[in-house]
Amino acid sequence: MRAEVGAVANTPVRVPKMAELVAAQLRRKIVRGELAEGEALPAETALMAEFAVSRPTLREAFRVLESESLISVRRGARGGARVQTPEGTVAARYAGVVLEYRGTTLKDVYDARTVIEAPCAGLLAGRRTDEDLARLRAAVAEAERLMDDPSAFIRAHMEFHALVVELAGNETLSVLNGMVRHIIDQANWSHVDLDAGSPENVRANRRGFRAHGALVELVAARRAEAAEELWRLHLQEAEDYLLRSRSMTTVLDLLG
């Protein structure tokens, strides 16, 4: 025990750089809404005085926030830094890079989608409102209208999946789903390019459409367990169909 304590005591503690501390304070203001979307940050001279830092240190802090897509910086006489709302697309792109580097298979990603989406279907059925139900019915009607247009239909299909997660009401699952959906959507578009309008594609689209309609009825009846099981089966069928193409088996094949 003493040896462990000694090892911890001898471990050097990294002291954050001043630019990181400034970036952290500005980041906190952005996520708390003290600095609104599109709002210009105060002039550099004002921020330098507020934080008691030099111009190079402040600009280093700006680069940190810019890399996180929390601000956009325009150079020149009329330039300056403006606030950007945090978006899941930044995390999604980075997650894609990490998964590419690790050689992650598309099956692995699809399995993760099932882990996220299926319980969301159950959550939605258990807590849905009349407004939620109206939005789901409208989404199904829109997909039916687009059935003969493969590109438009697959877009409506993907948006329905995102809507199920959104309406489930869990923000953490919604962010995680956005990271996975970035890759799934790319795979869906690749399939549209490969077999749009083929008999197999038409059958898969109609089968998926029926599953969407059936889910809405289970949600309307508040049958949470049945909704989750139906959605799990639908996601597995979609995975089997989309992975039949052997040309892409990893995230790197898809995004690289």
Topology:
Elements: H1 2-10, H2 18-31, H3 44-51, H4 55-67, E1 71-74, E2 80-83, H5 88-101, H6 106-127, H7 130-145, H8 150-168, H9 171-195, H10 199-220, H11 224-242, H12 251-255
Helix pairs in contact: 2-4, 5-9, 6-8, 6-9, 6-10, 6-11, 7-8, 7-10, 8-9, 8-10, 10-11
Protein name: FadR family transcriptional regulator
Keywords: DNA-binding, Transcription, Transcription regulation
Domain HTH gntR-type: 16-86
Structure description:
It contains 12 helices and 2 strands; from the N terminus they run ααααββαααααααα. A two-stranded antiparallel sheet has the order 1-2. The chain is mainly alpha-helical and 256 residues long. The mean pLDDT is 88. Helices cover 73% and strands 3% of the residues. It has 2 domains: 18-83, Arc Repressor Mutant, subunit A; 89-253, Up-down Bundle (Four Helix Bundle (Hemerythrin (Met), subunit A)). Helix 5 packs across helix 9 (171-195) and helix 6 packs parallel to helix 10 (199-220).
Low-confidence stretches: none
Give the CATH H-level superfamily of the largest domain.
GntR ligand-binding domain-like
Structural class: mainly alpha
Give the class-level CATH name of the largest domain: Mainly Alpha
Count of helix runs: 12
CATH architecture of the largest domain: Up-down Bundle
Q: Roughly what fraction of the amino acids lie in strands?
A: under 5%
Rounded to the nearest angstrom, the radius of gyration is 24 Å
Distance between the termini: 48 Å
**Count of distinct strands:** 2
What share of the residues lie within helices? Answer: over 70%
Largest sheet properties: 2 strands, antiparallel
Structural domains: how many: 2
Instruction: Give the spatial strand order of the biggest sheet.
Output: 1-2
Residue-averaged pLDDT: 88
